[in-house]
Every structure is written in structure tokens, then in C-alpha cells.
Amino acid sequence: MKKEFTTDFQTRLWDAVKSIERDSQAEVVLVLRSCSHAYPAIPLIWGICAAWLSHTYMIYAPGFFEDWLIYYVPVFAFAIGYAFAHLPAITRLCIKKSTMQKNVEIMARAIFQKGGIHHTRAKTGVLIYCSFLEQSVYILPDRGIEMAMPHEEWQRLRQEFNLIFAGKKTMDRLLAALHDTRLLFGRYLPSRTDDINELPDILEIDL
What we know:
The protein is mostly helical. It has eight helices and three strands, in the order αβααααββααα. A three-stranded mixed β-sheet has the order 1-2-3, with helices on both faces.
């Protein structure tokens, strides 16, 4: 995520969000996070299993191992297993998809509330929350903008955002999805002359 999140991309991202708000009444807040949960048990389990397997091998192997190896090898194996389990692909392999999606939803709803996205005068705030570890996007609209669009359009939009993780060029897919969002919001909730920007476009909030 950090490698792809260049200054040029940040500028393009800001422009994409601003264009949505320029062409519609929507108050879009975009939040990008590396993960929605730390999943601390996964590295510990991998580390303990690696240490146990290495110790078991040395105890029952036909060869002879010196005492210092029997002591230090499991410690080293634990460190390797612990570090290896921090790879995003390994974490996703060990966690149920439903659990990851639930964590993404919990984080998105917490940001929606703490960030005050529901405080716009016309209730047109919408959070687009992207979690890269879980490879999931959660779109949470306020009731004003949710009622302005058909349910089928919301379903299609959510599916399009979740497809940004379906292959390479995730950032380009995200920008394309934001472009489609601009067209969709502009159709159902066109901008007004008295419209003002009530929310920060890209929100940084600690939870």
C-alpha cells in the first residue's frame, strides 16, 4: 500500500473526491487503512507451532544435537514463524472471510460515527472505507443520500469497489470506481448552487 500511495496518486485521489462533490450534493469521505484489525493471535500461533515442530524434530531425530541448539533453535524458529505470519497473504489465509468482513464493517461504522459523517445538514454524507489487508471496501451512506438512489445502484456500486482488489493495479481501479461514483451521484443527487463542503474529503481519525 505505501509503495503505491505516492504523492501523485494522493493528488489524483483528492481530485477524484472533489469532482464527486462538485458534481453532486454528496459529501464523500474516503478513508484508506492498511488493516481493520491487528489479528494478534495469528503470528503467535505460527510462532508457537514453528518452535514446537523444531523442538520435536531435534528430540526425536536419529542424529545428535548439542544442548545449545536444542535451546536456541526453537527460539529462532518462533521468531521466523512469527515474522512470516505477518505477511498479508498468510493472515488472509488464516482468517475466515466473514470474520474479516465483520471487522471491516465494525471499523467503518466506528469511523462514520466518530468522524461525524452523519452531521451534514441534508444527511448526504457517505463514507468509502478501504481496508487493504482484508481487501475489502465498505460504503456507508447517510440516510439522505441512501434514499436518493435505488437499492440496485448501491449494490452495483459496492460490487464495483470490492472488485478493485480482484487483480493488480488496485489504485487505478480505485480511481476508476470513484469516477463511476461521480457519474452515479451526479445523476441521482445533482449539485446545487448553495452546496458547501461540510466534511473533510480524506479523514484521518484514531480509534
